[in-house]
Write a structure and sequence with these properties.
- The structure is a single chain.
- The protein has helices at residues 49-80, 83-110, 113-136, 142-171, 176-204, 208-226, 245-254, 257-273, 276-287, 291-313, 321-338, 344-371, 378-406, 409-433, and strands at residues 3-5, 31-33, 439-444, 447-452.
- The chain has a single domain, classed as Growth Hormone, Chain: A, CATH 1.20.1250.
- The two termini are 23 Å apart.
- It is built from 14 helices and 4 strands.
- The radius of gyration is 21 Å and the shape is globular.
- Helix 1 runs antiparallel to helix 2 (83-110) and helix 1 runs antiparallel to helix 4 (142-171).
- Strand 3 and strand 4 form a beta hairpin.
- The strands form 2 sheets. Strands 1-2 form a two-stranded antiparallel sheet. It has a two-stranded antiparallel sheet with strand order 3-4.
- The chain is mainly alpha-helical and 453 residues long.
């Protein structure tokens, strides 16, 4: 594999006029891969034994997590008959990240990621089994689902940044990009299998058993974490306890274009583009009238595209800021177009393209943020990333529920794609004015060809 370094296409430090002193040494220039890796290295991160163990347990856990998400949203829709109530469910699950997410990053930087995840996954197991007991006994009400969703969100404040950063400890810097792509592939494979299984369970035995399975899967993750060989993990020395660590982490992120611009675009996409549970539940229930099975199918279509995108991301030759900007713009356009589809077949096909494009954009932004942040502050940087990713959905869920209830689900889909596309235009113009992106128009075969560098 041939590599070179670049500080112009992918800036890793802010200009000197904007530099803010921090206790962290500058990040090394990002490697720009000039050749695609050979096919035998597509999953090179899985050659690391610890990462193989982690991935095996994570695949089961992600499948069960998607099952619970679909079953939970459909359960609330059955209990209330309201798209707004489904939006509230999404908000309850992600609001804690919006409120406390940055503090989660400080905790993750200070303590063992493996230990933290064993605690969080055990808590998830208890919450899932509790929700299963309420549902199977017939005593569940919407407010109970909201309460458990909120408690789950509180645990996620620690679990999600720990899940992001532990990958570095498992594989080290050398295979980090590949490990991030493999992790995304596992997440999306679970997203393809989980909703389909959830649709079958909802039709056959109801939502309760999906919650039981998720509880057991969380227990399995605890077991796999206990089997990791700690002697082979890359230890990250925790920063000393001192005041102002949270502010220092934020200053660090704000003054690096390869962190703050992906964070901005992910924030907009989370608020508007990641509100698909609200939209798809309504499409299945009122537009195409295909019920729980159709809702599971729509989620699986997105996951099929996303899994394809995750696999393609392992073959990506370049990792640049423009990839993120263009990716979110294309994803937004595809999602808005899906709202115009008159029948279920073209709608489902477009969902596949939305999933593919969204995953390529999200994997690029995740990789760029992680690789351009110093290891000593990566927990806080990733907590900011996860805050906007999950906290944005806490805002977007109720907003999209209101738009669907007040106008129509078709308008909701147009808004969900149009706003991220607009954000990409704003980011592109801002970066172009700073000289970090350039638009070139050339004539080729008597037709104009536009490229961004």
């Amino acid at each position: 594999m041939t590599t070179s370094t670049s500080t112009s296409a992918v800036p890793t430090q802010a200009p000197s006029s904007q530099a803010v002193p921090t206790p962290y040494p500058p990040t090394e220039p990002l490697r720009v891969v000039t050749e695609r890796p050979p096919w035998r290295h597509t999953f090179i991160a899985l050659s690391v034994p610890n990462f193989r163990i982690w991935t095996a347990g994570n695949l089961v856990a992600m499948t069960a997590t998607w099952m619970q998400k679909v079953a939970q949203d459909w359960l609330v829709l059955e209990l209330t008959g309201s798209a707004t109530a489904v939006g509230v469910t999404v908000a309850m699950q992600f609001a804690p990240m919006l409120l406390f997410g940055l503090f989660g990053g400080v905790v993750v930087d200070r303590f063992s990621k493996r230990m933290l995840m064993m605690i969080t996954q055990s808590t998830f197991a208890v919450l899932s089994i509790g929700l299963a007991a309420l549902t199977l006994s017939g005593n569940v009400e919407a407010w109970m689902v909201w309460a458990i969703a909120f408690a789950t969100g509180l645990v996620t404040v620690i679990d999600n940044p720990a899940r992001q950063v532990i990958v570095t400890e498992l594989v080290g810097q050398k295979n980090l990009r590949n490990a991030i792509s493999v992790n995304s592939s596992v997440f999306q494979l679970g997203g393809m299998i989980g909703p389909a299984l959830a649709g079958v369970l909802l039709l056959a035995v109801g939502a309760g058993w999906a919650f039981v399975i998720n509880g057991l899967a969380c227990a399995l993750v605890v077991f796999t974490l206990s089997r990791l060989r700690t002697s082979q993990m890359t230890r990250i020395a925790p920063p000393p306890r001192e005041p102002g660590q949270l502010r220092a982490g934020l200053r660090y992120a704000v003054h690096k274009p390869t962190i703050i611009w992906p964070v901005f675009l992910v924030a907009v996409f989370a608020v508007f583009g990641l509100t698909m549970p609200v939209l798809l539940a309504t499409y299945a229930d009122t537009v195409f009238k295909v019920g729980a099975g159709g809702y599971g199918l729509f989620n699986s279509m997105i996951a099929v595209g996303a899994l394809t995108g995750a696999l393609l991301s392992t073959r990506r030759a370049n990792l640049r800021l423009r990839t993120v900007v263009v990716g979110v713009g294309v994803t937004g356009i595809l999602q808005a177009t899906a709202g115009l589809m008159p029948s279920i077949v073209p709608f489902s096909i477009l969902l596949i393209t939305v999933g593919l494009s969204a995953l390529l954009f999200q994997t690029a932004s995740n990789s760029l943020v992680q690789m351009s942040s110093n290891i000593a502050v990566r927990g806080r940087v990733m907590s900011l990333y996860v805050l906007v990713l999950l906290g944005g959905q806490a805002i977007g869920g109720p907003v999209m529920g209101w738009i669907v209830s007040s106008f129509s689900v078709h308008i909701g889909m147009l808004v969900s794609g149009g706003m991220p596309a607009l954000a990409a235009v704003v980011a592109g113009i801002a970066l172009a004015r700073r000289g970090q992106l350039h638009l070139h128009v050339r004539m080729r075969h008597h037709l104009p060809t536009v490229t961004i560098t």
